[in-house]
Design goal:
about 350 residues, alpha/beta, TIM Barrel, about 50% helix, binds glyceraldehyde-3-phosphate, schiff base, DeoC/FbaB/LacD_aldolase, deoxyribose-phosphate aldolase activity, lyase
Length: about 350
């Protein structure tokens, strides 16, 4: 049910977590032998945080820079990986000037992301390749749900007073409930960054638990706003708290911070995911978001995930890109792959 993670030589941190988990299971005779696929969360356990307080910044930066240089993906192989980037995308519009009409056009693009010429040239035949989800603000959830019904493309809503998360807790929870009622099957919540700065981990845990409960069957993605969190240590700790509280995915950024998804931040988060998996057997998804606009950048992220978590994580239930303009560059690169020429970006306008 939970195959062993490839390439996961246990770190000291995760080994500590495994010991903690074993202690917890041994003390609880009713603990299940097999764990369910969806993250059920666990009681708040500060020892899970203690194991993550050390961060080797220069080691992470070195790893991030060598990871992307070691592999060069070319030709047909590159086209195949770009199609995977497309299938792993939450095609997003989160603008102040969004309208129902704009969202309808984005949904039409999600249903038919590649031109007939591209599909024929790539020999896709009847294979359906679409983004995993369309991601919108709450007022457009019903419109997106209507446009995408029956397609298998999920509707994701950003909730909890996106992007700052500073409304009262009751208001944030109500927003989730309304989005689910309107047809959202995935909810992207933002955390209150102040809880991280103040080290109020249990309070953060309780808020995320409340979000998870409000989601019901909708999957919960927890946005950390990593560019706001000041240190990579905070990123690791907030990741672990979100997972303990029941997050199905942890997500880097809103796209509205001054620094969004970066590879060193991604490394900290995926290593927290790996540690949580080794300790609990539960696989948590990862969503880098914000500023990922080139096909090349998407390939860097795929390499990072394959190297750190293994191929099994490169599926829509465990990995997503949050991106508003990445699809345009993927189309241009695929066209270049077929014709040797680049077309202008406006020819692939999305909305
Ligand atoms: O969650 C998704 C992000 O808001 C998208 O950010 P982006 O517009 O920089 O691609």
């Amino acid at each position: 049910m939970h195959p062993k993670t490839p390439n996961s030589g246990k770190t000291q941190n995760s080994a500590e977590l495994v010991q903690l988990r074993q202690g917890r299971v041994a003390a609880n005779t009713s603990a299940p032998d097999t764990l369910p696929e969806r993250n059920p969360g666990m009681p708040f356990d500060v020892r899970f945080l203690d194991a993550l307080r050390r961060v080797n910044l220069s080691g992470l930066e070195r790893r991030a820079s060598t990871l992307t240089k070691r592999r060069s993906i070319k030709g047909d192989n590159q086209a195949a990986w770009l199609l995977r980037s497309l299938a792993l995308m939450d095609l997003t519009t989160l603008n102040s000037n969004d309208t129902d009409e704009r969202v309808r056009r984005l949904c039409a693009k999600a249903l038919n992301p590649l031109s007939r010429d591209l599909r024929q040239g790539l020999g896709l035949g009847d294979t359906v390749i679409r983004p995993a989800a369309v991601c919108v603000y709450h007022p457009f959830v019903a419109t997106a749900a209507h446009a995408l019904r029956g397609s298998g493309v999920e509707v994701a809503a950003v909730s909890t007073a996106f992007p700052h998360g500073l409304a009262p807790l009751e208001t944030r929870i109500r927003e989730i409930e309304l989005s689910v009622a309107a047809g959202a099957t995935e909810i992207d919540v933002v955390i209150k960054r102040g809880l991280v700065f103040a080290g109020r981990w249990e309070e953060l845990f309780e808020e995320v638990q409340a979000f998870r409960q409000a989601c019901g069957d909708a999957h919960l993605k927890v946005i950390l706003g990593t560019g706001d969190l000041a240190t990579l240590r905070n990123v690791g700790l907030a990741s672990m708290v979100a997972m303990m509280a029941g997050a199905d995915f942890i997500k880097t950024s809103t796209g509205k911070e001054s620094v969004n998804a970066t590879l060193p931040v991604g490394l900290v988060m995926v290593r927290a995911i790996r540690a949580y998996h080794e300790a609990t057997g539960i696989r948590i998804g990862f969503k880098p978001a914000g500023g990922i606009s080139t096909a090349k950048a998407s390939l860097d992220w795929l390499v990072l995930i394959k190297e750190e978590l293994g191929r099994e994580w490169l599926e829509p239930d465990l990995f997503r890109f949050g991106a508003s303009s990445l699809l345009t560059d993927i189309e241009r690169q695929l066209e270049h792959h077929l014709t040797g020429r680049y077309s202008a970006g406006y020819r692939h306008a999305m909305a």
